Amino acid sequence: MAVASVGEIIWVIGVIAWYVIRYPFERRARRVRIVAGGRSRSDTVGLASALFGLAILPAFYVATGIPGAADHPASAWAVALGTIIFCCALWIFRMSHKELGRNWSITLEIRERHELVCAGPYALVRHPMYTSFLLMGLGQIFLLSNWVAGISGLIGFAVLFLLRVDKEERMMLENFGSQYRAYMEKTKRIVPYLY
């Protein structure tokens, strides 16, 4: 089997694993009442961009080979590195969901009896779910031997991050005040010790 095909298969398995991790939390979230926030136009654009870049466009490439003009030679080291990065992304994604529990929401919302979570990956960064999307985008670059499909994940992540993170932090400051401000002083946004 060609190295490029192995990378594509690993990417597909990774995306399926991503959905398997998220699905039970989506189901549970529907049962917890929302007390503040909700989906805005920019929130919808950000989520759609991430979905397009991390799933739709690369899935189209894997299924059709289009745009083949952007293909580049695949290498075993790139697929191995992409697999490691993608696995790390999935682990952080799972741990983030687990720590958030009933507080998790796909949109910017405050749930009934919402608590500030500072444990697990949240002890290192304020937004580990964005960290996982960043890593998924990086892993995608190494797994898919196509410049367009590869980099689309990072672009989708960047749009989501830039449209949401400031709003998310303002919402948390409004809800948790000095407690969140103190948490911000101890942690970085998405890259431990750096940013």
TrEMBL record:
The cellular location(s) given in this protein's UniProt record come to: Membrane
Listed name of the protein: Isoprenylcysteine carboxylmethyltransferase family protein
| Chief location of this protein within or outside the cell | membrane
Residue ranges annotated as transmembrane are 6-25, 45-63, 75-93, 141-163
Q: What is this entry's stated membrane topology?
A: Multi-pass membrane protein
- Identify the GO cellular component terms for this protein: membrane
Gene3D superfamilies recorded for this chain? 1.20.120.1630
GO molecular function annotations of the record: protein C-terminal S-isoprenylcysteine carboxyl O-methyltransferase activity
- Coiled-coil stretches noted in the UniProt entry, renumbered to this chain: none
Q: Which UniProt keywords apply?
A: Membrane, Methyltransferase, Transferase, Transmembrane, Transmembrane helix
Q: Which organism is it from?
A: Mesorhizobium waimense
Q: What PANTHER family does the record tag this protein with?
A: PROTEIN-S ISOPRENYLCYSTEINE O-METHYLTRANSFERASE, PROTEIN-S-ISOPRENYLCYSTEINE O-METHYLTRANSFERASE
Q: Which GO biological process annotations does it have?
A: methylation
- NCBIfam families per the UniProt record, alphabetical: isopcys_mtase
Q: What is the lineage of its organism?
A: Bacteria, Pseudomonadati, Pseudomonadota, Alphaproteobacteria, Hyphomicrobiales
Task: State the superkingdom.
Answer: Bacteria
